[in-house]
Write a structure and sequence with these properties.
This protein is of the alpha/beta class and 315 residues long. It has 9 helices and 14 strands. A hairpin with a 6-residue loop joins strand 2 and strand 3. Helix 1 packs across helix 5. The protein binds threonylcarbamoyladenylate (TXA) and magnesium ion.
């Protein structure tokens, strides 16, 4: 199969209606989309990505009105949060209605929903009228793709088309927030920070239960093929280091290759640059090191770096 790179939304819409898979741009990362109501098409996503069957998918919608058909019940806080953050990088977990194929939810009775903030994908959702199930469009375990080129590098020959909407502005995946627990609970840090959410609602304790509620969190993720270590002091002799602009001086005159991927002063620039930096470092075939910023506002970044290094949880 030849993978086409498209900008034609009508054509992408036709392919999806015929049960094909199309990679789509979003503000966070590229997604690998299928018609969520077509179980065979959705099953194909798992095959193409090599994704474990027990890891459920996010359903993408054009508008809050689309929730009614796929959600059994939306608590009042849902409206507050969708008014504040949709379209945008916030995924909400609801009790699923019976219309959602269980291959989408990996057999759970809840469904993850988000409304992406990208003009091309907004138009695709509206013109097709399709609910789109879409995980990140990478081979399972690899860094998520933030350009059409990244998707092509992972999935060329495996999918019919990639809709090219340029580089993703946010660069890390959406924040996943469970609305089925007593208090809303963050299951995955992402484009919307804990502090953003706390302006609107009290959140449950950050600590996740032992059996992860977001099943995707238990797998090694975002990982380049070369080993990645979090640098905690000392400068290694050989390899490539990922660091913020402000810390570049630490490696001046040394033997390490340095990839600067953003600025500590603007955490969103680090989010935006991380996955591309991981892919570039990987292409250098050297051990990879990363400085990991501490403190508030860097939760999503730390989570991705720790997972890339093979830790299942921070710390
Ligand atoms: O920004 C994003 O969220 C991107 C773009 C394409 O929208 N998508 C994405 O999908 O990151 P994926 O499949 O790579 O990650 C979805 C996460 C996984 O950790 C999964 O386990 C969790 O959401 N998830 C999905 N459905 C869930 C559910 N019903 N209950 C708990 N967690 C769920
Ligand atoms: Mg993913």
């Amino acid at each position: 199969m030849k993978t086409e790179i498209l900008r034609d939304i009508d054509r992408a819409s036709e392919m999806l209606k015929e049960g094909g898979l199309v990679a789509i741009p979003t503000e966070t990362v590229y997604g690998l989309a299928a018609n969520a109501m077509n179980p065979n098409a959705v099953a194909n996503i798992f095959t193409v990505k090599g994704r474990p069957q027990d890891n459920p998918l996010i359903v993408h919608v054009a508008h809050t009105d689309w929730l009614d058909a796929i959600v059994k019940y939306a608590p009042p806080i849902a409206r507050t949060l969708t008014d504040a953050f949709w379209p945008g990088p916030l995924t909400l977990i609801f009790p699923a209605s019976d219309s959602v194929p269980r291959v989408v939810t990996a057999g759970l009775d809840t469904v993850a929903v988000r409304c992406p903030n990208h003009s091309m994908t907004q138009r695709l959702l509206e013109t097709s009228g399709l609910y789109l199930a879409a995980p990140s469009a990478n081979i399972s375990g690899k860094p998520s793709p933030t350009t059409a080129r990244h998707v092509f590098d992972d999935l060329n020959g495996k999918i019919p088309a990639i809709l090219d909407g340029g580089a993703c502005g946010v660069g890390v995946e959406s924040t996943v927030l469970d609305l089925t627990s007593e208090k809303p609970q963050i299951l995955r840090h992402g484009g919307i920070t804990r502090r953003d959410l706390e302006k609107f609602t009290e959140l449950s304790d950050d600590k996740l239960p032992d059996a992860p509620k977001a099943p995707g969190m238990k797998y090694r993720h975002y990982a380049p093929s070369a080993p990645l270590k979090i640098l905690r002091g000392g400068v290694p002799d050989e390899g490539v280091v990922l660091c913020p602009e402000e810390q570049r001086v630490l490696f001046a005159g040394g033997k390490l290759d340095v990839i600067v991927y953003g600025e500590l002063a603007n955490p969103e620039t680090l989010n935006r640059g991380l996955f591309d930096a991981l892919r570039r470092a990987d292409a250098m075939n050297k051990p990879i090191f990363a400085l990991c910023p501490g403190g508030e506002g860097f939760e999503a970044l730390r989570d991705r770096l720790y997972k890339a290094a093979g830790y299942l949880e921070e710390g």
